[in-house]
Design a protein that fits this description.
- It is a single chain.
- It contains 14 helices and 6 strands.
- It has helices spanning 18-22, 28-38, 41-46, 53-59, 62-72, 168-191, 195-204, 208-258, 271-277, 280-285, 288-294, 406-430, 434-439, 451-469; strands at 297-303, 312-319, 329-336, 345-349, 363-372, 375-384.
- Mean pLDDT is 76; it is low at 76-116, 121-164 and 448-456.
- A hairpin with an 8-residue loop joins strand 3 (329-336) and strand 4 (345-349).
- It folds into 2 domains: 1-90, Transcription Termination Factor Rho, Rna-binding Domain, Chain A, Domain 1, CATH 1.10.720; 228-469, Arylsulfatase, C-terminal domain.
- The protein has 470 residues and is an alpha+beta fold.
- It is found in: Nucleus.
């Protein structure tokens, strides 16, 4: 089956082989950059490559991107020549290009010490982010002529063949291809620069008059940044002020739920369990074995006051005495990158739950046969199983980035993002509006569904339609 032309007219041909695209030398960002620049919208939509590059990187794996890229191999990006005419070969890009380094994690491991958490539980924060790994070296290799191949002059070549006359339209297409290739190389080189290097490179391309104007704009930006910092500080102070005002209300909620403060001794049995079950995301996390444990959950608190003025927040899950574990409070802490203006997760810290004998719901006991000295015996072993309480055991981050393959790092990043989204859900939606989740008032039919789920549902619907037609 011949390949389908997925390129937009006049775009550059695929710069890598399938093997090169799958290697660590070509990053996901480079593949997205090429395909979004050179492939038509129908192809991008079919392969789920449309949208901002950062969003595409999150929802599409490197393997899927490579598969999509392979579909571009062998298809001609330029319009087909007239019948009987030889195809014009594009000029090889001049120079070489260095791609950006693959996305690097800069997680900082906590120190063993630390001041108490805002909820009275240990708060083991500290340490500094690790330095990112150096960028890998890579050059585009477009190759020379093969042994025995007749040399063709690209300076005199036209649509008519190796020695034909050039038409004006051919020259324009030829120059457009070269300009497109050089522009792509330039963008890739800029991505591999530091912010200051990109700024200097941009300023160096400007005339003195325009450069002075840009410098004036930078002064205006600095003034705006000062005002934004002042705004953020006042917002943080205002948030802290109203958190204090809300605290007595949350305390009263706790007393009513648990039957304290003169209320009925039974309170509201299973309050938080029903809150979890009425939220679609949390309901998927809660397993059957978790339900009896969560009936002992009496309160959930959050705080942004971390030791050492660290950026982030901590959750505290309060439990009444129960037959499952010894702890009264289970904590989960999220440390954010203090240098990043956005909420960029640096590390999440869980809680080592002190499970009582035979009550650990995060493992299941299975029987396995062992051979020893010619005899077979049956032993019971524990294996991990799905549980909400795995929330308190976040993924481990290696000390060195080189210890992980790119696919493993992508998988780790997805796990950490999901973990952070779950923590933010508790902080921003569940804790402030717990009773609305209990009654179902907070449930929205359109809420919490992402694009991936919609795509999966569409595929399932198509399969069902096919089955009905059969």
């Amino acid at each position: 089956e011949s390949p389908t032309d997925v390129h937009s007219p006049g775009k550059m041909a695929p710069p890598w082989t399938a093997e090169e695209a799958a290697s660590d030398a070509v990053s996901k960002k480079m593949l997205i950059e090429y395909m979004q620049t050179n492939c038509d919208q129908a192809f991008l939509t079919a392969e789920r490559l449309q949208g901002q590059p950062a969003s595409v990187q999150k929802r599409v794996t490197k393997a899927d991107m490579v598969d999509a890229y392979k579909k571009t191999l062998g298809s001609e990006p330029a319009p087909l020549p007239p019948p009987g005419a030889g195809a014009a070969l594009p000029k090889p890009p001049k120079g070489s290009s260095t791609p950006p380094a693959s996305s690097a994690f800069t997680f900082s491991a906590p120190n063993s010490g630390g001041s108490p958490s805002p909820f009275g539980a240990p708060n083991p924060f500290g340490g500094s982010p690790a330095q990112p790994a150096p960028a890998s070296s890579f050059q585009f290799n477009f190759g020379g002529k093969a042994d025995g191949e007749e040399a063709i002059s690209t300076e005199t070549m036209g649509k008519g063949g190796k020695g034909g006359d050039d038409d004006d339209d051919d020259d324009d297409d030829y120059d457009d291809d070269e300009d497109m290739s050089l522009a792509l190389q330039k963008r890739l080189q800029r991505l591999n620069m530091s912010a200051s290097q990109r700024r200097d490179a941009t300023m160096g391309e400007l005339t003195p008059v325009v450069r002075q104007r840009i410098e004036k704009l930078e002064k205006l930006q600095e003034s705006c940044d000062v005002l934004q910092t002042e705004f953020d500080q006042k917002m943080e102070a205002l948030r802290a002020e109203y958190d204090l005002k809300k605290a007595p209300l949350f305390k009263s909620r706790f007393q009513i739920v648990t039957g304290q403060g003169g209320e009925d001794a039974d309170g509201v049995p299973g309050f938080w369990l029903q809150v979890f079950q009425n939220n679609m995301i949390l309901a998927e996390e809660v397993q059957k074995a978790d339900e009896d444990v969560l009936k002992y959950l009496t309160d959930i608190k959050s705080s942004t006051k971390l030791s050492g003025d660290k950026k982030g927040f901590q959750l505290a899950f309060c439990f009444s005495p129960n037959p499952y574990f010894e702890d009264e409070i289970l904590t989960k802490t999220y440390l954010l990158d203090p240098e990043d203006e956005d909420e960029c997760l640096q590390k999440s810290i869980g809680h080592d739950i002190n499970w009582k004998e035979g009550k650990n719901v995060t493992v299941k006991v299975v029987q396995k046969k062992q051979k020893k000295k010619g005899k077979v015996r049956t032993v019971k072993v524990e294996e991990p199983t799905d549980s909400f309480f795995n929330f308190f055991d976040p993924p481990d981050v290696p000390e060195e980035e080189d210890e992980m393959e790119e696919e493993e790092m992508e998988q780790l990043q997805e796990q950490l993002e999901s973990d952070y989204e779950l923590g933010s859900l508790f902080k921003d939606k569940i804790i402030p509006k717990a009773v609305s989740w209990f009654t179902g008032m907070a449930i929205s039919p359109d809420e919490d569904y992402d694009d991936d789920d919609d795509d999966d549902d569409d595929e399932d619907d198509e399969d069902d339609d096919d089955d009905m037609l059969k």
